[in-house]
Amino acid sequence: MNEKERFHFTVGQLVDILKSLPQDLPVLTSGYENGFENFYQPGIIKVKHEPENPYYDGEFQAAEDEDEETFEAVVIRRVVRDE
Asked: In which element (H, E) is residue 60 found?
């Protein structure tokens, strides 16, 4: 497997994508457990801050309904591989 097949993005590609997004938005990533994964192209979604969630559920959740507590964030989702 060569480098182009192993990694989805380079730093330069990620910088170009992030430059095209609103510069005042927060950036979040999916996670859980350990190790590192490739990620999908960053995108903007509505989220809600829920700090009382257990660590494995994440401090921020995709907003199901919009209200005064929801906001937009750039999200970099990790690739989830099937085992």
From this structure: strand 60-62
